[in-house]
Structure formats: structure tokens, C-alpha cells
């Protein structure tokens, strides 16, 4: 027998836990959080690679309703962020709502009963509303490389780090130069015998203004909350002022580019290596990375930078696209995630019997980044075109939580067994506006191929505005953008006297 709940939340990262807290604060206690793993934390549970840390300042990378005056550093590491999420879970009484080891295998809308039917690894559920908070950084992307299956040594993705493998004294190859790789390389370089970095595209790297937050600061933030709020506000304001350069005037990023080049010159004296590490696209087109030890690590005697992607594996030999061949004992992929083709989309079937993946075959699109046409009472946290290039995703999550709260209020006002489904015209109008604004952004004009773009070159991930603007457009649900669905009225088996043949009692 399926357990019925008012709301089923999929995922227990920042988005899922944030949704759970907001539900409780709205007085909704009839909900479950379905998590495929055996613990909460999302990407901060899965990513445990050496050096793993956040590239957004700690006081901004936390919920506004759950401030943490005890952050130890400007940029906190993975253990501290995961511990923060555990504290949020306990503080807001979320444990009874958690259903761990409950991967959602399928979610199907039942139009007759006006509810979602979910099949999970721990049993069946039905729900009036489903909140998908699986996040874009959930499922690692491994490139298809000929011969990879026959590599004799350990192979793993950065998000599935194998801590049973001892890399000391081994020849290790790292594939990729994204946010994970630039943390992994300096962390493992001192202990491996040889480190080879396969770099398909160099990254723009800025200095990381990290330091220990002093005991005095932590005491002050705990005793005088206004100081903590001021720090968060300053961090937020600086990033809001930067948005225009990313979204409207990429030419204004020239100064930032000059800072990055100076950072590279200071760390890398070899002109040939420096040339290999210098990008040929506009800064900001790919995510800007922050590190003080990445470039120095690449100059060490036991490190080789191959300015080409990995093309083939021949036994223990790795062959780059430019023909360079090296031997390796272990292979680590820092090749990102399935962002524009999220696997959960294949498991969700809407009102017309069509999966979300089929609906999105020409590109992901959701009204206000939160609801999709054809999928009643389904909301996304971190949905299409809600990603940021320079600020904290927690700000976007909290805006979508406001929208979720008002969505539930609207259902309560409408009464009965009711559903709201985004009108295709509203979704299309919203998406056309987003894509029109995207034409001027650095992500579309900067001359790079990034994870912001799907296979057809459409930017279906980034938000082309400020976080303040997104909060405004998700403050309330506009019912004109939705079709109201009600439970079908069932005809009585026998019409009362006085009703003509074929009439239906109301």
C-alpha cells in the first residue's frame, strides 16, 4: 500500500533541505524527503575529493534563515559545509521526514486521482505535489573514451572519489580543468610520483582571497547578529554589481581578465607553460575559478600539462588528441556533471504520458525556472535557467522556496483536489524572453564551449539577471500563467429520477 503525503521532495542537498524547512515553516508537516543515498548532503556528501571546498564565501553560501557565525574560513571546505547541513536538519526537525536509500525510480501523474505516483527503492508513495530538488551537480559525466574499460588501474570521477586507492608514489592522470580539478591537482601533487593533467581548455583563474576567520570575528557574529548580516549583505552587494558585465557588457570584464593574467604571470615563469595555460576566450564564458595553489602546483618537477584532451586509452597508456602519450597507474576524471540532460527527467511522466526528458528534447524550459508545461503540481528547485556565474545559488534556492510556498497557498485557496499546470504559452513566453536576453551574455558570446550550453548550443542553465530580480519574479504565483485542474467528476451509476437519459448528476 502506497503511503500518501501532501508533498514529496526529491533530494536532500541544499535545495531539498531548504524545501523541507520552508514546508515546516508554512505549517505543512505531511511531507517526505526522498534521498537515494544513505545520508543527506547532496553534492556536499558526494564530493569528498582531496581539497574539496566551496568557491563562494561561507557567509553567503548558507541559508538566510539559518546563519552560521562559526564558519572557520572565508571559503569553507566540504566537511564544514556538510556539517552545516546536518545541523540544519537537526535544528529544524527534518529527520522524521527523511526517507534515505529511497531513490526515485519513476514518478507518474495520475490524472484521474489528481496526484503523483512515485516508485522508490524503499516503496511506493503518492503525493499531491512533487518538488524535484535533485540539483544539476548530482550525476557525474564520464566521457566516452575508446579503451577506457581496459585500463588496468583504478578509474573514478572526482564526485565518486575512491578513498580505498592510495595514490602515493603512483603515476596519476587527471582529466579536466574545472572547479574540482584545480583543487585536486595541488592537493595530490606532493604525494604522487608523476601527475599528468589533460587540459582540453585552460581555465581563467583568479586569486582566492581565503583566510581563517578569527575567533574575535566569530564571537562578534554570534553575539551581534547585525555584524553577520552586514558581512553577508556586503558579499551579496558586490556580486550584484558585477552582474551587468556578465549579462550585458562582457567587454567590461577586461580588467578582471588583466588580473587573471597577472596572477598567472606571477606563478608561472616558464613562457611556454604560461602560453599553454592562457585561455583564448573571454573571461566569464566558463566559470571563473579561484585558486592560489593551482598554478604553483603545475610548475613542480613531477607535473606535466598536456594541452589536449584525452582521446584514447591503450592499456596503461593514455593518448591525447594531439598524439601525446603518457603512462599512468590511476586515472581521475574531473569532467563535470549531467547538467543539461538531468537523468531524473527520464523518470518523470506528465499528464499526457510523456516524460520530462521527451518534453525537453529541444532544450530545458520552465516557467520562472520552476514549473513545466504538462507536469501538474511539479516544481523544480534549481530548475532551467536558474544557475549563476558569480554568486551563491542559495539565494536562488530561497527565491524558489518563496514560489513553492505561494504555490501551495494557491492550491489551498482553490480547495478540493486541485492542481496547477503551467500553460505552454506562459512557458514559451518566459523562455523566449530568457533566450533573448541570453544573446548578449558572456556565456553566449565569450567564444567558449561550456557546461552552461546544451548539445545544440542553447544556454538552458544560467540566469541572465541579478538575484534580486529573480526574487521579484518568483515572489508570487500568477494564476493567469496556469491552468487549474480539478478532479474529474464521476457519473453516478444510476441517474436520479427526473434526469434525462445520459445526464450526469452534479
Q: What would you say about this model in short?
A:
The protein is α/β, with parallel strands linked by helices and 506 residues long.
- The low-confidence parts are 495-506
Q: Count all strands and give the number.
A: 20
Structural class: alpha/beta
What is the count of distinct domains? 2
Helix content class: 25-40%
CATH superfamily grouping of the largest domain: FAD/NAD(P)-binding domain
Strand content: 15-25%
General form: globular
Q: Return Rg in Å.
A: 25 Å
How does the major sheet shape up? 8 strands, mixed
Number of helices: 14
Look at the structure and give the CATH class of the largest domain.
Alpha Beta
| N- and C-termini, Cα separation | 31 Å
Descriptive tags:
single chain, alpha/beta, FAD/NAD(P)-binding domain, 2 domains, 18% strand, globular, disordered C terminus, NADP, FAD, NADP binding
Can you offer a commentary on this structure?
With 506 residues, the chain is of the alpha/beta class. It folds into two domains: 3-139 and 339-486, 3-Layer(bba) Sandwich (FAD/NAD(P)-binding domain), CATH 3.50.50; 148-213 and 216-333, FAD/NAD(P)-binding domain (3-Layer(bba) Sandwich), CATH 3.50.50.60. It is 29% helix and 18% strand. It contains 14 helices and 20 strands. Strands 1, 2, 3, 4, 5, 6, 17 and 18 form an eight-stranded mixed sheet that branches. β5 (115-120) and β6 form a beta hairpin. α1 (14-25) crosses α11 (393-414). The longest helix has 23 residues, at 225-247. The radius of gyration is 25 Å and the shape is globular. Residues 495-506 have low confidence and may be disordered. It comes from Streptomyces mobaraensis (strain ATCC 29032 / DSM 40847 / JCM 4168 / NBRC 13819 / NCIMB 11159 / IPCR 16-22). GO terms for molecular function: flavin adenine dinucleotide binding; N,N-dimethylaniline monooxygenase activity; NADP binding. Pfam families: FMO-like. This is Baeyer-Villiger monooxygenase. Keywords: FAD, Flavoprotein, Monooxygenase, NADP, Oxidoreductase.
